[in-house]
Design brief:
Elements (H helix, E strand, L loop, with lengths): L9 E9 L24 H24 L5 E4 L1 H6 L1 H9 L3 E4 L13 H19 L5 E2 L10 H7 L4 E2 L9 E5 L2 E5 L6 E2 H7 L5 H17 L3 E8 L6 H16 L7 H12 L5
Parallel strand pairs: 1-2, 1-9, 2-3, 4-5, 5-7, 8-9
Antiparallel strand pairs: 6-7
Length: about 280
């Protein structure tokens, strides 16, 4: 990987999760915590989640545009079907569109292979139609794949697979249907577990990023740092402020921001012996 003078081999990836559940199904994690009794529909949690496509995504697009920063947007197929103009805007602004399953309540680990393949195809078709470009990568709802997911993605011709947590750096996954880049997904700087599950204040996003960045720079090895925000969680004002500070900190350290498509492409180029 050829770096610009003074540029670190560390890169930051901004991941934006733009998620939706099937009708009448609320997020498993919401701002009030516990599920409602008796199977009642949690309309408060549903309204909280709708902040993503209605408000949060646009606010994040403005923030990223102001800093000329690219991001990888992970979009549920059902959300793209209902909000095609939003998806087209995201792609038109130069951001990567990645597939994030059909709906967040449909987890690949609970599907048989045939059903998983059909859900994958449905998701890719809708995202391609909305964005005007076919996704190159995938992360499953809840980051929970099945034992067949990597093979199904390779079969579909995708470049990278993000449900990978056993390495720091990209590696090639060989399947019966071809190979795919396993692109590890770092969970350290992630708003959903930090702010919702564990109830940390939003400032912990920046504090944790600083620690991860310091460690990466001290090691001096090529790597990437995932900074993950959900459009219905940290896209709100206090979270947006922390993301802005994180991007400013990366710029101060001359650390580039790259998409996952770019990271996977660079890895494949190195594997092929191309210095670029």
């Amino acid at each position: 990987m050829i770096e610009r003078p003074g540029e670190h081999q560390v890169a930051v990836v901004v991941n934006v999760m733009l998620e939706q559940w099937e009708p009448g199904i609320a997020p498993g994690l919401g701002p009030m915590g516990n599920p409602l009794p008796g199977g009642a529909i949690d309309h408060q949690a549903l309204s909280w989640a709708r902040y993503g496509p209605r408000t949060g995504a646009g606010k994040l697009l403005d923030l990223l545009a102001a800093r000329s920063v690219p991001a990888t947007f992970y979009i549920s197929g059902i959300l793209a079907e209902e909000n095609p103009k939003l998806v087209a805007t995201i792609a038109g602004d130069g951001h990567e569109i990645a597939a994030h399953g059909w709906a967040q309540n449909i987890v690949p680990a609970a599907l048989d292979k045939h059903t998983e393949r059909e859900q994958l195809r449905r998701c890719l078709t809708v995202l391609t139609d909305a964005a005007g470009q076919r996704p190159d990568g995938w992360i499953s709802p809840r980051c929970t794949p099945s034992g067949d997911t990597a093979e199904l993605l390779a079969e579909a011709g995708l470049m990278w697979f993000g449900d990978v947590f056993d390495a720091d750096d990209p590696y090639l996954i060989e399947t019966g249907k071809g190979s795919i880049v396993g692109l590890p997904f770092g969970m350290e700087v992630n708003d959903l577990p930090m702010l919702v599950r564990y109830g940390e204040p939003a400032r912990e996003l920046l504090d944790t990023f600083d620690g991860v960045l310091d460690a990466a720079l001290a090691e001096g090895q090529p790597t990437h740092i995932d900074v993950t925000v959900h459009a219905h969680v940290a896209a709100r004002p206090v979270g947006r402020r922390q993301l802005a500070l994180i991007l400013d900190r990366a710029a101060q350290q001359n650390v580039p921001v790259r998409t996952r498509r770019e990271l996977a492409g660079r890895f494949l180029a190195r594997e092929a012996g191309d210095d670029e």
